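Priority: medium. Attachment 1 of 2:
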C-alpha cells in the first residue's frame, strides 16, 4: 500500500512506531500538523497505544511493582513443593533447642513469635517490600532517563506529539525493571536458606525462618548430619533476628545506608541514548539484557564508593556479632566449625542470584571484613563478658565503628573503663572537643565580667537584683 493510500489511523500508527524506535528520518512538522488536524478520537488513540504497549498491556504509568511480585512468585513456586509436616516438626525442634543455647550465649531476649519453616513463595511475599524499597531509586532513575533520552532525540516541533511516547517509554522502562527485579528475587528464593542469609533485614521485624528445600540443597555436599546442620542454621537465624528485634534502630540504620547508596546511582546516559535510538517496545529483549547485566549503570562515584564502604563495615559488624554468638551457642556441635566455615565462604562469594542483584541495582551485599569484625567481638566478649558486649547494641552511639574493627584494643579499653564506672579513655577528637569547650567557657566568663555590667551587692532590692539604678 502506498503512503498516500493509508488512512489516518494507519498513518498515525506508523508515526508512533517510528517515534518509539527512535527513527526520526523522513518525519517533518507538516506531517505532524496534518495528523493533529485530523482530530483523532480518544477511542482510536487508545487502540493505537494498546497496540504499541503489546506485551505491557495492563501496566500503568511508572513502575508497576505487581509485575515484580508475579515474576518472583512464578519462579519461586515452579516446583510446587510445600513444607511437609516432618520438615516443620524437625525445624521446630531445632529452633527450640537453638533458643535454649542462645540463652547462654547472649543477653538479647527471645523473639515474641516462634520461628518457622517457609516455602520459597512465602519468603518472596515476606521480603519483597524491602527489595522494592531498595530498588525503587534505581528503577525511577532508569525510567526517567529513558524518557529523557527519547525526548532529546526529537526536534522541538515534535515535543508535544512525543509526550505520549515518553510516558509509554517510562512505563516500558519501569515495567521491564520491575520484571527483572522479580526475576532476581525469585531466583534468590531458590538459594537462601534463612531470612538473614543476605545480611540485611529483609524479613518482617521479629520473624525468623528457614526454607527446608534450600536447606536440603545447602547440606547436600557437606557430609554433615542434618540434625547438626539444622541446629547450627537455626541458631544463626535466630541470633540475626534477635539482634534486629532488640536494636530496633538498627533496621532503619541499615536500610538508610542502602538507600544512601542507591540514591547516588546515575544512569549511563550515553549507553541509554544509544539503546533508546534503536529500541523497539514490541521487542524489549535488548533493554532487558542491558538492565540485568548492569550495562546502564556507570562506574561508582566517589560518594557511592564511600557509602558502600560504610555499608560493608556495618554489615560486617552485624555479621561478626552473629558469628561469635552462634559459635558460642553451638559449641556442643561436633561439626560446628565445618558448618561455620561453609557459611562464611557462602556469604563471602554469594550465589548467582545475589550477583544478579548486584548488577541490577549496583549494590553488592558483601560483609568483606566479617572475620576482622568477629575478632573484635571476641576480644570484647573476653574482656567484659556477654552482658557488656551486648550492651553495645542498646544505643546507636555505642555501636562499634569501622575504626574499632581496625583497632579492637581501643574498643576493649573503652568498654572495660565503662564497666568499672571509670571515665572512658580519650582520643585526639575528644581532646580537641574538650579544648574547644574550654575556650568557649573562657569566652563566656570574659563576657560576663565585661565593663558596663554591674551586679548588685544585695543592699537594694532582692539579692542578685540587676535592675538599673
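Attachment 2 of 2:
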Amino acid at each position: 500500500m502506498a503512503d498516500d493510500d493509508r488512512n489516518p489511523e494507519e498513518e498515525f500508527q506508523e508515526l508512533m512506531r517510528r517515534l518509539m524506535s527512535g527513527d526520526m528520518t523522513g518525519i517533518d512538522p507538516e506531517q505532524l500538523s496534518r495528523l493533529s488536524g485530523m482530530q483523532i478520537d480518544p477511542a482510536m488513540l487508545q487502540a493505537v497505544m494498546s497496540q504499541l504497549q503489546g506485551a505491557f498491556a495492563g501496566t500503568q504509568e511508572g513502575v508497576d511493582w505487581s509485575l515484580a511480585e508475579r515474576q518472583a512468585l512464578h519462579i519461586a513456586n515452579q516446583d510446587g513443593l510445600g513444607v511437609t509436616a516432618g520438615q516443620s516438626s524437625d525445624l521446630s525442634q531445632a529452633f527450640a533447642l537453638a533458643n535454649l543455647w542462645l540463652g547462654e550465649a547472649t543477653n538479647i531476649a527471645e523473639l515474641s513469635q516462634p520461628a518457622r519453616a517457609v516455602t520459597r513463595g512465602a519468603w518472596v511475599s515476606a521480603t519483597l517490600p524491602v527489595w522494592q524499597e531498595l530498588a525503587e531509586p534505581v528503577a525511577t532513575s532508569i525510567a526517567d532517563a529513558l524518557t529523557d533520552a527519547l525526548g532529546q532525540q526529537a526536534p522541538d516541533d515534535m515535543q508535544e506529539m512525543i509526550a505520549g511516547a515518553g510516558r509509554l517509554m517510562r512505563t516500558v522502562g519501569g515495567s521491564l525493571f520491575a520484571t527483572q527485579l522479580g526475576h532476581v528475587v525469585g531466583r534468590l528464593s531458590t538459594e537462601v536458606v534463612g531470612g538473614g542469609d543476605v545480611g540485611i533485614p529483609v524479613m518482617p521485624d521479629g520473624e525468623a525462618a528457614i526454607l527446608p528445600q534450600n536447606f536440603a540443597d545447602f547440606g547436600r555436599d557437606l557430609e554433615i548430619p542434618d540434625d547438626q546442620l539444622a541446629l547450627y542454621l537455626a541458631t544463626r537465624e535466630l541470633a540475626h533476628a534477635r539482634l534486629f528485634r532488640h536494636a530496633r534502630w538498627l533496621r532503619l540504620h541499615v536500610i538508610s545506608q542502602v538507600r544512601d547508596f542507591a540514591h547516588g546511582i546515575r544512569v549511563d546516559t550515553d549507553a541509554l541514548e544509544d539503546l533508546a535510538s534503536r529500541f523497539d517496545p514490541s521487542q524489549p529483549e535488548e533493554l532487558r539484557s542491558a538492565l540485568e547485566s548492569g550495562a546502564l549503570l556507570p562506574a561508582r562515584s566517589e560518594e557511592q564508593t564511600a557509602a558502600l564502604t560504610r555499608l560493608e563495615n556495618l554489615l560486617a559488624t552485624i555479621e561478626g556479632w552473629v558469628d561469635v554468638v552462634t559459635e558460642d551457642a553451638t559449641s556442643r556441635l561436633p561439626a560446628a566449625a565445618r558448618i561455620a566455615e561453609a557459611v562464611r565462604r557462602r556469604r563471602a562469594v554469594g550465589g548467582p542470584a545475589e550477583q544478579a542483584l548486584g548488577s541490577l541495582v549496583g549494590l553488592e551485599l558483601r560483609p568483606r571484613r566479617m572475620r576482622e569484625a568477629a575478632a573484635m567481638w571476641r576480644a570484647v566478649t573476653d574482656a567484659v563478658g556477654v552482658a557488656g558486649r551486648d550492651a553495645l547494641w542498646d544505643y546507636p552511639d555505642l555501636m562499634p565503628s569501622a575504626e574499632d574493627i581496625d583497632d579492637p584494643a581501643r574498643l576493649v579499653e573503652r568498654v572495660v573503663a565503662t564497666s568499672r564506672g571509670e571515665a572512658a579513655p580519650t582520643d585526639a577528637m575528644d581532646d580537641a572537643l574538650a579544648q574547644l569547650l574550654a575556650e568557649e567557657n573562657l569566652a563566656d566568663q570574659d563576657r560576663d565580667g565585661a565593663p558596663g555590667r554591674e551586679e548588685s551587692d544585695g543592699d537594694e532590692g532582692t539579692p542578685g537584683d540587676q535592675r538599673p539604678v
